[in-house]
Structure formats: structure tokens, C-alpha cells
Amino acid sequence: MARGGKAAGGNTGLWQWLGLAFILLLADQFTKILILGYYQLGDSTYVTSFFNVVRVHNTGAAFSFLAGASGWQRWFFTVLGLVAAGVIIWMLKSHPGQKLFSFAMACILGGAIGNVIDRLAYGYVVDFLDFHWRGMHFPAFNVADSAISIGAVCLILDELLRVRKTR
Questions:
Q1: Cα–Cα distance for residue pair 88/158, rounded to 1 Å
Q2: For the segment 126-137, what is each residue's pLDDT rounded down to a tens digit?
Q3: Distance of CA 12 to the CA centre of its chain
């Protein structure tokens, strides 16, 4: 391992993480294209007693935050996603050898870009995974949201492990 956590051989590590982000982006966009092609807004398919496939349009952020705003949120969250993508790419370039950290960043990057594409193409994010239990519904989400959530959990884990290591 070279200084600064960079893998020997230059940007090999960076491309590995960008590749993971791209695979997540493709999975996200592919599933959303299927939903848009086969479901009308509001359609739902029962899968199990706790899971449905639905078609929902989210004009806000996580948990429909700001979904009722007048439209400015589309551009705000688009710019925020693009800025985050730039920062994440810079961080990946700086730390490609830190595997858990880079995995987390790649997951967040793929998810963020997936949702930015939706906002630019449709004006909303396509959500379709609907989990429920005993009359309570978790807000519908998508593959991009899942990748972002997994990335966030891995970032927390990475930091906890880093703090533990320094003791």
C-alpha cells in the first residue's frame, strides 16, 4: 500500500470503486425502467404479507421530505446530489485503499447519481419497494435509496472501527 492509502498502481482502486457505483446505478435505473414500463402511478402488486411492489413518485427527499414544496426542491436536490457526487469522487481518489470507507462511498455515489438521473429525467424519484407490517407502512423506496442506506451504515461502521483502532 502506498502513502495516503492509495493502492500501488495509481488509480486502480479508484476505478474499482467507480465500477461498483456504476453497477449500482445500472441496477437502480434498470429496475426503475421496469416499474415505469409495467406500472401506472399508484399501481400495486401484492408479493407477501409484508411487501408490495408499487409505483410512487417522490418529488422530495428521503421519507418524502419537502415533497409538498412548490418545485424548487427538484433543483435543490439535483444540485446537492451532483455536489455530493463530486466530493465522493474526490474522497475515493484520496482513499481508494480504505476498503470499507470506499465501499460505503461507492454505494452512496451510485445511489445519489441514480436519484439525480430521475430528478432530471422525470422531475421526481421513482420509488417502488413497499414494506409494511401490521398496518404500518415504511415509505416506499428504490435500489438507489437502498445503496445510500447501506453506504451510510458502512460509513458509521468504518468510523466506529477507526475510533476503536486508535484506542
A1: 16
A2: 999 999 998 898
A3: 23
Q: How far apart are CA 75 and CA 114, in angstroms?
A: 15
* Farthest-apart Cα atoms in the chain, separation: 54
Pick the catalytic residue from 28, 118, 130, 145: 145
10 torsion bin: left (phi>0), alpha (psi -120 to 50), beta (else): left
* Residue linked to cell 402511478: 41
Catalytic residue list contains 127: yes
**Distance between CA 104 and CA 35 in Å, rounded?**
27
> Is the pTM above the cut of 0.90?
no
Rounded distance between C-alpha atoms, residue 83 and residue 77, angstroms: 10
Q: How far is CA 78 from CA 49, 58, 117, 122, 162, in A?
A: 35, 13, 8, 12, 32
Tell me the pLDDT tens digit for each residue of 147-163. Answer: 999 999 999 999 999 88
Where residue 59 falls (left for φ over 0; alpha for ψ -120 to 50; beta otherwise) is: alpha
Give all strands of the β-sheet with 51-58 in edge-to-edge order. Answer: 44-48, 51-58, 125-133, 136-137
Which of 118, 127, 130, 158 is the catalytic position? Answer: 127
Show the cell assigned to 158. Answer: 468504518
